[in-house]
Amino acid sequence: MRPSGRNLSEMRPISIETGVMRHAEGSCLIKVGGTHVLCSASVEEKAPPFLRGTGKGWVTAEYGMLPRATNTRNRREAAAGKQGGRTVEIQRLIGRSLRAGVDLRALGERQIVVDCDVIQADGGTRCASITGGWVALRLAMNKLIAADLVTSDPLLDNVAAVSCGIYAGQPVVDLDYAEDSEAGTDGNFVMTGAGQLIEVQMSAEGATFSRPQMTELLDLADAGVAKLVEAQKAAI
């Protein structure tokens, strides 16, 4: 039995509220169970220096966690004077994941920065950030299209992510903190709406996993991402 009482293949409740930030071109508040992330997409009418003159744009991301997003207070990284390694790794993952669903040439020489700020954490913050970040990106793209600033839709497909792992010897989807902290195997699966894999992060800690178990986790991730994509489409 999972600590939450969920079935092995049962996702946490998902809600996505859009338009939560007045000034951002796209924004949403995504809630996946007890994990709440505020996502915004900001359009900058210039490409980063390494892309100037190429006709291509860029999508990047920044990630942060409020001090009391967890059960004990974390020091603000701004107060520490630098970002932690975990933060840098997560925001690079978010950026890579979102770019996989974008035609950068159709975007033109501009940059969109997706900010993901964790208000409350209960496992799966990077997955919720990717899923909510795509919604914010979609809304920002809609504004570019409405203003005739792009000639075709730069978004190729939905992008969403879910965690899966082996908890108490059983493959489970969408781990909360209680499961994540005890799981022998933990993974994050980033996929497109069509079911194509973008990135898989898998590791075993305390117990190895088999090829058949990996297949089970992929099946769980496929079904979980499909539910997240449904929520994205409903929110848009």
Structure description:
The radius of gyration is 18 Å and the shape is globular. Helix 4 packs parallel to helix 6. 31% of the residues lie in helices and 29% in strands. It has one domain: 2-Layer Sandwich (Ribosomal Protein S5, domain 2), CATH 3.30.230. It has 236 residues and is an alpha+beta fold. The strands form two sheets. It has a five-stranded mixed beta sheet with strand order 1-2-3-5-4. It has a four-stranded antiparallel beta sheet with strand order 7-6-8-9, sandwiched between helices.
Strand-helix topology:
Layout: E1 14-18, E2 26-32, E3 35-44, E4 58-65, H1 77-80, H2 85-99, H3 104-107, E5 111-120, H4 125-146, E6 159-167, E7 170-173, H5 177-180, E8 185-192, E9 197-204, H6 211-235
Parallel strand pairs: 4-5
Antiparallel strand pairs: 1-2, 2-3, 3-5, 6-7, 6-8, 8-9
